[in-house]
Write a structure and sequence with these properties.
about 45% helix, about 280 residues, alpha+beta, elongated
Length: about 280
Amino acid sequence: MSDNLLSNDSSRILYTPSAFAKQALLHLQETGILHATSPHTSRREELSSLLFFIVLSGEGLLSYSGETYPLKTGDCVLIDCRKPYSHSTSVNLWSLQWVHFYGNHVSEIYAKYLQRGGKCCFCPHNFDTYRELLTEISQIARGTDSIRDMLLCEKLTSLLTLIMKETTQIESGHLSAGRETLHNLKDYLDMHYTEKLSLDDLSARFFINKFYLTRVFKEQFGLSVNNYIIGKRITNAKELLRFSDMSIEEIAGECGFSDANYFSRIFKKIEGITPGAFRHNWRP
């Protein structure tokens, strides 16, 4: 790790979360603002942290995962700091606002972000919202509220949610033909999920290659087509288990499962208990 502290003017907050926050919450490690006063490079590696920063002004470079990315005013960066990285300002000296944070499941969240098409560097649609969130995080960290860790977790969750939304933003303000097809397909699944459906049938109905469909549906909605259908069926099954007197066999058929045993296996895999136990626990 290296920094030239004489080459920048930084205002930072080092934060020590509680043991509870480290175990159970997204938790803040550090946040601040940097104003470069001369060209410099910062290097880090093997940090248990995610780093998010925004370029307030100026330009620079990020080196990460064997790639180099040019950055300019208005750009955002989200990286996993367990991997080596460095960032450096150009002669057009930059200012950055950043936050380091972590949590037990952030690696999975970051992997999901990448799976959905997210990039380590992006130019957001709503830059001011990001800046406001980082400013709010700093204000909370400086404060003395007894529930600071919970408030910081709320803001960090909002930050990750906002970043995730960047992977599904519509560039032109309306659906492209491809995305319109996907939404029409999803609407079709919502209406026909109890029926026997196959990728071949859906591909033919919506004139879309089934391999392309498999990939872009998951990118758009976060689930495979099959898991989306199963989720709809299980949700319907839970409603019928709680609010009807139908037998488990009848519910299996009603929700589109081929037989009650298969339904019970899938239900337990997803919910952690059998349909009968679910009904017992939730019925008055």
